[in-house]
Amino acid sequence: MKITLIAILLSLIILAPFSVNSQEMSIDVYDADGKDIGTFKITNYQGTQYVFVEEISKLFGGTRQNQPLLGRVTLIMKDKRIVISLDRNYIKLNDTEYKLSKPPINISGKVAVPIDFLTKILTRTLGKRIVLNLEDGTLELTDKPFDKQAEFEADLGITSKAYHTKTRIMIDPGHGGFDIGAKSKTGIIEKELTLEVALKMKEILEAKGVADVFLTRSEDRYMTTEERVNFANNLRGNVLLSIHFNWSPSQNSKGFNIYTNGDRIRMSAEGITVTSSSDMFANQSKKLAYEIKNRLSTVISTGGNNREVPLAIANGLFMPCVLVEILYLSNQKDLDILSNPNFIDYVARALSESVLAFSGIASNKAD
Amino acid sequence: MVRKKRYSFLNSGLALLSLIIIAITVIAINNMLAQDTDEVTKDTPDENSIEIKLYFLDPEGNNLIPEKRYISQYGNITDHVKLALLELSRGPQTGLIPTVPQGIDLREVFIDEKQCAYIDLGRSIMQNHNGGTTGELLTIASIVNTLSESFPKNIRKVRILIDGREAKTLVGHIDISKPIFPFK
């Protein structure tokens, strides 16, 4: 027993220096459709993370010319020419030079570049946005431009404002048909409450006459999330609000919750700023969440946390969107609040004003 | 008279004997069953067990908390994953709150070379789920955290399939069409 322990300790001591030098992690690469297109390695060398040019070139379909005498590698990728010179901080992409955090180096005979190569050079070469998540070990390519709706619409050759003079508000009452949603012990059904709130909002907003309002469903029928997304996209909505009532296995959870879409919080690596979400509408959605929190908290005193989660309704949706869970049908205090006959009216009013404020339309509070 | 008495004596003797036999069988079966479940999970570790962490909700409803369980090391990684998921759906043994509907219909499990665990569940999980974004998030997070924390060398992310197909969502709120990473 003692001998084995000593042997293990000894081998650890012997192996330790080697393991420090070979800190590697594997990164999975996904294209815009979520298709897995391969992996590459990130190697940690003297505190900086590097990727091998050879791997990147193979993965993204480039051809490589090594010029060892000149101490450089030339990559031809997507008809663009990238010149990587060893020990030089600058990388040439066609005629423009971009500065990297560290110069390229030679690790065991292979040319390696610091990982900001991906977000500075590769993204420009491919013409795609790169979301690198070191914590999860993933790299996603997306066709969507950065957080600018105008840029995106220009790409599509449309401007929603040119088509429609009024803001187009999409209201999505959750669940419906055989999908009843959550249910309280007392028999209150989510799909009915969501529709009630949505119909009330439509009434309030249309009375103001400042926006066009569309409901994904106006009666009790089942809809998949894809159908809801297609509906809102086809109508070129400017914003979507999905209305839900919550349920938790814990009877103590209470109050309202606001959800915006986000894959997860992404960490930033050395020298790289990584965006927090691949959702181009993330910032606008958060703005709507903020407006809702401000107004709904005057109706419901508890809750109001804004959480970023992967939302099904935001998958493929071309507009800012928020999912609001108004109350917990699993909590008695929330059910008491719900029993107030004016509650739905108050909530619909608070939500309508939030959407108008978000859309830049001043709402007339005296009405 | 004498004959009759002998019969009844014989009868009662037979009845007694069969009762004893039944009792012995019941005890034996019980013991076998007890041994069986003993082999599946244990509360205390021994040299043949692997520690797994099942994530359940704390009574306040704020956090997912791991509950340790020990499973037999025999079998391969997919066997261990199946066992962990069945235990998760069986619920907590302490004062925690279950987060996965009881009796999930676990159809298949496989793990690809990218350390992604594919969990194929029957449609019943959609029907047995009580709904709510909170409820749905907790179910998904419990599954993903349980697998990634119990088998950190083998699983980094989880993909949930329904009836062998890619699904957009479990109960209408959370996007499960892509691999899901542990929630922290």
Q: CATH superfamily name of the largest domain in chain A?
A: Zn-dependent exopeptidases
Structure class of chain B = alpha+beta
Provide the β-strand percentage band of chain A. Answer: 25-35%
Tell me the strand order in the biggest sheet of chain A: 9-10-3-2-1-12-11
Shape descriptor of chain A reads elongated
**Would you identify the regions of chain B where 5 or more consecutive residues have pLDDT less than 50?**
34-39
Major sheet of chain B, described briefly? Answer: 4 strands, mixed
Q: Poorly predicted ranges of chain A (pLDDT <50, ≥5 residues)?
A: 16-22, 145-163, 265-276, 363-367
Radius of gyration of chain B: 23 Å
Average residue-wise pLDDT of chain B: 85
SSE order of chain B, one letter for each helix or strand: HEEEHEEHHEE
Give the rounded overall mean pLDDT of chain A: 83
Largest sheet of chain A: 7 strands, mixed
CATH topology of the largest domain in chain A, by name, is Aminopeptidase
Number of strands of chain B: 7
Specify the CATH class of the largest domain in chain A: Alpha Beta
Count of domain modules of chain A:
2
Through-space gap between termini of chain A: 84 Å
Describe the structure.
The complex is a heterodimer of chains A (367) and B (184). Chain A has 367 residues and is an alpha/beta fold. Helix content of chain A is 32%, strand content 29%. Chain A folds into 2 domains: 19-142, Copper amine oxidase-like, N-terminal domain (Copper Amine Oxidase, Chain A, domain 1, 2-Layer Sandwich); 149-358, Zn-dependent exopeptidases (Aminopeptidase). Chain A has a 7-stranded mixed beta sheet. Chain A has a 6-stranded mixed beta sheet with strand order 14-13-15-18-16-17. In chain A, strands 4-5-6-7-8 form a 5-stranded antiparallel beta sheet, covered by helices on one side. In chain A, α6 (190-208) packs across α10 (343-358) and α8 packs antiparallel against α10 (343-358). Chain A starts with a helix and ends in a 9-residue tail after the last helix. The model of chain A is unreliable at 16-22, 145-163, 265-276 and 363-367 (pLDDT under 50). Chain B contains 4 helices and 7 strands. In chain B, the strands form 2 sheets. Chain B has a 4-stranded mixed beta sheet. A 3-stranded antiparallel beta sheet of chain B has the order 1-3-2. The A-B interface holds A 28, 34, 36, 39, 135-137, 174-175, 179, 181-183, 190, 224-226, 244-253, 257, 259, 263-264, 309-315, 323, 325, 328-330 and B 57-61, 97-99, 114, 130-135, 137-138, 156-157, 168-169, 171-178, 180-181, 183.
